[in-house]
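Notebook entry, structure prediction.
Reason for the run: the old model in the group folder had no record of what sequence produced it. Starting over properly, with the input documented here first.
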Amino acid sequence: MPYMGLEEVERLLSTLRQQMTQKNRLLPGGYLYMTDLLGKPDYINAIGRLIASVFINEKLDAVMTMETKGIPLAYAVASQRSIPVVIVRRSSKVTEGSTVSINYISGSSKRIQTMVLPRRSLKENARVLIVDDFMKAGGTMKGMTSMIQEFGAEVAGMAVLVETKEEQPKLVDRYVSLLKLTIPDRQETPIIENGNVYDWLPKQHVNPTKVETKDQA
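New structure, fully documented this time:
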């Protein structure tokens, strides 16, 4: 797997911050429009390499995500490790056979929602990396964690492209975020800063306590 060096990490995050800090990207409900970026092979492949680099020392058997916007990111990460992608859906499909269904509470809306996964998707004791494009309170991430446990598998890690900066703690911890979104009071231009990814990069890659990005210098 091509390992992403520190300079390349800084260039990628800087480019993503510039692209996402646009007034017309803010959506109602505190969400961020990223569909165009997730559809660009150069961007999504680079993001996948970065996330794979964070977990380069972890044994991984699969990458899991929730339909639908997290799918390109999941495949980008999985391709770096040549492992399968497991897609959790909101409803079952006849073509997928018998499924496991669980209810979870959405962290942002506080509503009970359902997610399903075919029984053939995961083997017992499999080590699974959860990835998603966007996280507010972390309800979906927590739901996928519960789903993995239902299969007798293990959560090897969690990674998200963008997390929101919330006053309340997330429903999950020990996750990697590449970027962090702060919505100003007037909800005009989003404020994008680096997430906690530098804290998670392997020690031989970089000493996170001494990292200073170009924007922070």
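Summary: DSSP finds six helices and ten strands in the chain.
The old model has been moved to the deprecated folder.
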